[in-house]
Amino acid sequence: MPQPETASPPQLTLDNxxxxxxxxGDVSGRTTSVLCNDKRVLIRLEELYDLFVIxxxxxxxxxxxxxxxxxxSFQSAAGEMTTEERGKRAKLIYDTFISSDxxxxxxxxxxxxKSMSARxxxxxxxxxxxxxxxxxxxxxxxxxxxxxxFIKSVEYRQYIEELYKQALKEKDYRETAAYGxxxxxxxxxxxxxxxxxxxxxxxxxxxxxxxxxxRLTTQxxxxxxxxxxxxxxxxxxxxxxxxxxxxxYTVAMTSVYNGLDMLERLKAGVPxxxxxxxxxxxxxxxxxxxxxxxxxxxxxxLNTYRSTYRMKITSYNxxxxxxxxxxxxxxxxxxxxxxxxxxxxxxxxxxKLYFGTQIELTRLTQLxxxxxxxxxxxxEFLNITIRPDIESILKFLLDNSNLDVVNRTVFESFLxxxxxxxxxxxxxxxxxxxxxxxxxxxxxxxxxEAALLLADTWPGTFLCRISKGQTTPGAMEINYTDSKKxxxxxxxxxxxxxxxxxxxHGKEKRYTNITEAIRSNGDIFKNSLLTTIPFESWFWGDxxxxxxxxxxxxxxxxxxxIRTVIESTSFAVTWVVEGRIKNSLIKxxxxxxxxxxxxxxxxxxxxxxxxxxxxxTLQKPFVSPASLILVSDPKxxxxxxxxxxxxxLPA
Length: 651
Fold this sequence. Notes:
The chain is α+β, with helices and mostly antiparallel strands. It folds into five domains: 21-154, Orthogonal Bundle (Regulator of G-protein Signalling 4, domain 2), CATH 1.10.167.10; 205-330, Single alpha-helices involved in coiled-coils or other helix-helix interfaces (Up-down Bundle), CATH 1.20.5; 345-430, Recoverin, domain 1, CATH 1.10.238.10; 438-447 and 459-527, SH2 domain (SHC Adaptor Protein); 538-621, SH2 domain (SHC Adaptor Protein). It has 24 helices and 20 strands. The strands form five sheets. Strands 8, 9, 10, 11, 12, 13 and 14 form a seven-stranded mixed sheet that branches. Helix 9 crosses helix 10 (210-241) and helix 11 (247-266) packs parallel to helix 14. The radius of gyration is 30 Å and the shape is globular.
């Protein structure tokens, strides 16, 4: 018996694809179109460019596009540069993309590589056309190989399919808008569709003609959908990174996503320029996070306190949230930010009192607070004076990206470690002050950084650090070396009655405070680690070589920083020489520390002695933005030296 035929889904026919030259120039606000099932679909060039970059990263060929853009930038700016600037810029491009030792080497023939090597040395005669041969070769690779493969890729096809579906939706909206005049009359008597009411509001508020409103309404829907989609992708990447501090970012972006979803469902009329600002902010945020994820370093970046990449994520997060708040405030159907309930009961009263809405203090709608306003309010709430040196520690803990704001989520995390905010015996500021007086407390350190600092120390050497990776509120870790010099750990969690010390086998012991816990286990915690490395301005911690190079780019010669290299269980120094970035491991042997790149160099007992020896090369420390810079208070410094003693532990 013959089987009935099943209808297969229609295959899209794609014709008239875009050209490479359309996305290599200024793509901001520009569009092109392709034929999809004989229907012309509009494409935003900036989105197409973003998709092309993602494809190149996936196929490990993004260096061609990066190189071409650098060469075009050099060509346009060379005429305005001095001879020295032109020479440095050309040398950097050569070392990055053309040299036989370049990490991101492009595929050019050996003759071109040799001629460029000789040409770079003659800085006096370098002109804007110095890289023409390389530029032509790279452009040919992009035009003949990379872009045709991209047009045939799954990413491109899925993207066009989504645009095709949106185009079909737009048709429905245009048909609704065609009834705009009739809806205007019907709406005055309480009837009419939601779409019609939205159109009516735009007509009244903007004085636009009906055809303009048709286009605007459609464009707004598309923009909102794209903002939501990228927002959702950012949230997905942050959550998949499973980083210690991801909640700091996901709370804000969830608020933005939910708000956009509400605006879309209400069909609220929103100002065109504000929606564009938000779309660009979210696009930049998405590109940066996607780049880190594609490179496999997103989780590491989020977990590294001193990472400038993490600080950029914080900045992008704040910018997107503020753009949304501005958009929401100006929209015709403005809605309150989604409710967010703090997990720490001790913070509710303080935040509601000072930063709740004026209408209803039970709605905690403010996620970011100006730094000065926060410090003033905290001092008033606790009835204390916060001195400059204590404020610098608070800023180190609460605003390490130097954005002059406090994120409510970060504040709650802070209270997990140093709270409650106020008790009958003290407050969170006194807790901070007391902890930072302890020589064994090192604040924010990653597990990798702690392991490296404790490597090869005497058995029983220990340190205490904030452990944001633990799910228990108020969690810290005490890391130490055992009798076999292995890296070990105890988890410390705060309770209302004191602290709980938990070993790696899950065995728990209760103590009044963390100091008592350490003193009571003197057979394990024998000697506190004595080093100031984590607080040095030149120490950047667990960052990659790429991030170190990006941070030092453009800095004066002999500027340097020191970072950890977990794979080699060592430190590394990265510095600037004649505009180029140099890097060397710092090896540890039985005698001490030695610069790996100096075959004849001797060993030094500590990093400070090594830096002093190479002071002709390592002259200017590149200060980490997350360094703790204590500001002393001359009025109280002298008196406190007598009245306040550091908490010492038995040897």
